[in-house]
Design goal:
Helix content is 44%, strand content 17%. The protein is α+β, with helices and mostly antiparallel strands. The protein folds into 3 domains: 138 residues, Jelly Rolls (Sandwich); 40 residues, no CATH class; 247 residues, no CATH class. The strands form 4 sheets. Strands 1, 3, 4, 7, 8 and 10 form a 6-stranded antiparallel sheet that branches. A hairpin with a 2-residue loop joins strand 7 and strand 8.
């Protein structure tokens, strides 16, 4: 009914019986009283609903006496707001409910049956809209309406709210005339068909970025590499180490133009920042590729390849972290790079380490469908990781001091850093070759269970 109820403080049980030592009909002891006690501190004591029954002759029965309501300051009783049978047993009413104003009125009960024990349970509550709610409780359905009230919803809405407003609103809104008018008005509404919503701006923007990314990579492929449609087979017997090394150089030029995976599609400024290092490696001219790989001829051709040359994903991420850390150390000391690769390298090599040692598909699916494309993407990432280590090894031998050097770095320290990067690059270049040999020995597509 819109008001607060706190049963812990407003619900009570009462039990009363005519006293044995009554001094006559006018003795106040012959009356049971509930209701107004003169204390207005209880905010919930506006209205009270009382459930009443009696016990006598060994059975539960209805009230044998009569109830009267006396308003505060008046000597005559007022009619009960509500009284109705609530519970019956074998067709005989055994309990009644009484609703009255407990703050401004008192409920009196009187009976002649000395053996009858009156029992009651009371619940006090507060109503937000007392007039309408109480009248709706005591009047038959449909009887509550102001004789001089508004006859239309328009008249009601345009007038200020007054007594009976909510009940009049419900009555007028749900009248047959109003429902018919609402139905007729709704049937005349014509809606223009709406075209399907276009693709979201975010999706369109991502597609544009993907298209631009592919077009830029395709435009940078040298003509002689673009003419090579398939991977160059490096497994088998070669006439010389120089022949094997030459095939690897061609593969190195070709692999950097193959997909790295959509994880490297730039989508924010940080991604754009790491693109400088990737593009530097991708756009290395032929002469630079051959010259840089010449430094690793002994590592590449000096011993046969075996499973020990295949580095685990954990090992690859550890090596990527060491490259990233060394690059940050140089930047922190104040070294600079005119090509700006040094600034971009840490984020790029860190991303490579994360994708190489990322979530494994076999941990999520009972079966894995592996193709040569999967091996190609992995092999390309391994090659890029090698080139990051090689570039940093080369830079450690030809560092450029910036205008704001934090400290003076000893030559011995720089030589140590270069040796660490050369050692890392040798491991990574053999890992790249080993993965190429391993992939060639596998079928074009297979399932791992």
């Amino acid at each position: 009914m819109g008001g607060p109820i706190n049963a812990a403080h407003t619900a009570f049980a009462h039990q009363w019986k005519l006293p044995v030592d009554s001094r006559g009909p006018t003795d106040l002891a012959n009356f049971h009283m509930e209701g107004d006690n003169g204390n207005n501190d209880h905010i919930f004591d506006d209205y009270r609903i009382t459930l009443v029954w009696e016990e006598y002759d060994g059975a539960l029965r209805g009230a044998s006496g009569s109830h009267h309501i006396f308003e505060s300051g008046k000597s005559s009783d007022n009619r009960l707001l509500k009284s109705a049978d609530l519970i019956s047993y074998n067709g005989v009413g055994t309990a009644s409910t009484i609703l009255y104003n407990a703050k401004d009125a008192t409920l009196f009960y009187q009976t002649d049956k000395r053996d009858a024990v009156r029992n009651s349970i009371t619940l006090s509550f507060h109503l937000e809209s007392a007039d309408d709610e109480i009248r709706m409780l005591i009047e038959p359905a449909g009887a509550v309406q102001a004789e001089d009230g508004p006859s239309t919803l328009s008249e009601l809405v345009l007038n200020n709210a007054g007594p009976g407003y909510s009940n009049s609103f419900q009555r007028l809104l749900l009248s047959p005339e109003s429902l018919q008018a609402i139905t007729e008005r709704l049937s005349k509404i014509r809606l223009t068909p709406i075209d399907p919503p276009p693709a979201s701006d975010a999706h369109s923007k991502l597609q544009q970025q993907a298209d631009a990314y592919k077009e830029d990579n395709l435009a940078k492929i040298p003509a002689d590499i673009l003419a090579i449609e398939h991977d160059i087979i490096i497994a088998g017997i070669h006439p010389s180490a120089e022949n094997f090394f030459g095939l690897l150089c061609v593969n190195a030029r070709r692999d950097v133009h193959l997909p790295l995976g959509w994880e490297f599609l730039p989508q924010d400024p940080m991604d754009e920042h790491r693109e400088r290092a990737r593009k530097f490696i991708r756009d290395m001219p032929k002469q630079a590729v051959y010259a840089r790989l010449e430094n690793y001829v002994q590592a590449i051709t000096g011993s046969p390849y075996s499973a020990s040359d295949l580095l685990s994903t954990d090992q690859l991420q550890q090596l990527a972290t060491s490259i990233e850390t060394r690059a940050y150390e140089l930047l922190t000391d104040g070294f600079v790079d005119p090509s700006h690769v040094l600034n971009s390298l840490p984020s790029f090599v860190g991303a490579l380490g994360q994708v190489l040692n990322g979530e494994k598909e076999w941990g999520r699916f009972p079966q894995m469908h592996v193709t040569q494309y999967d091996f190609q993407v992995y092999r390309t990432r391994c090659l890029y990781l090698f080139w990051c280590a090689d570039w940093l090894a080369y830079y450690n031998g030809k560092t450029v001091e910036g205008r704001f050097m934090i400290r003076e770095v000893a030559k011995e320290e720089m030589d140590k850093g270069r040796r660490e990067m050369v050692w890392t690059a040798r491991l990574l270049v053999r890992n790249w070759v080993a993965w190429g040999l391993f992939g060639e020995a596998l079928p074009q597509e297979f399932v791992i269970t």
